[in-house]
Design brief:
The structure is a homodimer of 157-residue chains.
Chain A (H helix, E strand, L loop, with lengths): L6 H12 L5 H8 L3 H13 L3 E8 L8 E9 L8 H8 L4 E7 L5 E7 L2 H10 L7 E14 L10
Antiparallel strand pairs in A: 2-4, 2-5, 3-4
Helix pairs in contact in A: 1-2, 2-3
Chain A binds a DNA duplex (30 and 30 nucleotides) through helix 3.
Chain lengths: 157, 157
DNA sequence: TCATTATTGGCATGTTATGCCAATAATAAT
DNA sequence: ATTATTATTGGCATAACATGCCAATAATGA
């Protein structure tokens, strides 16, 4: 059953996407409620899992993680059925900050974050290419982050 | 000049990546400081741009954004030099939640979020394929989100 | 060793979160 | 339409928190 969200709920989500540390007083003001019902709605959204959590967004360059790679992984045809083990392996790699199983030419697309090329080479050789079901890996190096950590396009209806 | 971060700064970043709404008292406790210097450090990290902001992480399915596509865009060779206009155009599309210029076979990889296939078809036809410098577009549909919104692998040294 | 600078912890004050209750608004049944 | 029922709201009181200031401590360099 999809959770029903009214206009105020969507405003709350929008506001908290823009600034996850808004005080409840400020948030209430923005969405046109008094603090008390506003807080109840936020708690409900958290409870229901609509809000999965809160994150500080960190500048990658500032923490010496200047290299982002979109790594496309192709899986051996025979192991495609039991790709669960590969998923778990990918999920456990800290440098893989996001990963999707996709329907295109590659089977997985992973976003990998490392300090530099040497670190990526090490990860590729020692970790990614060691995964047994991997048939082929193609690396797309990010030369420029055009847009990152953007808010979701919440439907307004 | 790279901003120097000591062990406590890294602990702060780690903690705020895990929970961006930690109270300063709780954060101070976790990193082994009293609230006052802890708050000063957080403010400094915000000031210096190491912390770029705070975000609520929202469940895509809960807000009817169940379809994620990694759209690979290839640019006409002659327009590659002045790709700035394309970048700006991509950045302005709300459904594009992240986008990188890459060094591989495609020139851009965009992460697109829409409610369903019909919405993607509309975006593709009416927006993406209308961009004048685009030579080819390949769509990788996410069938399963293996890992999303993961924390950065902060170096511990 | 001493002087200088940066960083810390504690304290006081204003702000915020949070739980409770009565009042209001929305909904459903007759 | 009217009334009963339910859900949601706003206000209030209390406890926790943020924030700025100052003296004390720790780190740094001469």
């Amino acid at each position: 059953m999809p959770i029903s969200l009214d206009a105020i709920d969507r405003k709350i989500l929008q506001a908290l996407q823009d600034d996850g540390r808004l005080t409840n007083v400020e948030l209430a003001d923005r969405v046109g409620l008094s603090p008390s019902p506003c807080l109840r709605r936020v708690k409900r959204l958290e409870q229901e899992g609509v809000i999965r959590g809160y994150r500080a967004v960190i500048d990658r360059n500032a923490v010496s993680l200047g290299l982002t790679i979109f790594t496309e992984i192709k899986v051996d045809r025979h192991t495609r059925a039991r790709a669960d083990a590969l998923q778990a392996a990918l999920m456990a790699i800290p440098q893989v900050v996001s990963c999707h199983m996709v329907s295109g030419a590659p089977d997985f697309i992973a976003e990998v974050v490392v300090p530099d090329l040497a670190a990526y080479e090490a990860l590729l050789s020692n970790v990614l290419l060691e995964l047994p079901m991997v048939e082929d890996i193609r690396s797309n190096f990010s030369m420029r982050a055009v847009k990152t950590d953007s808010a979701l396009p919440l439907p307004q209806e």
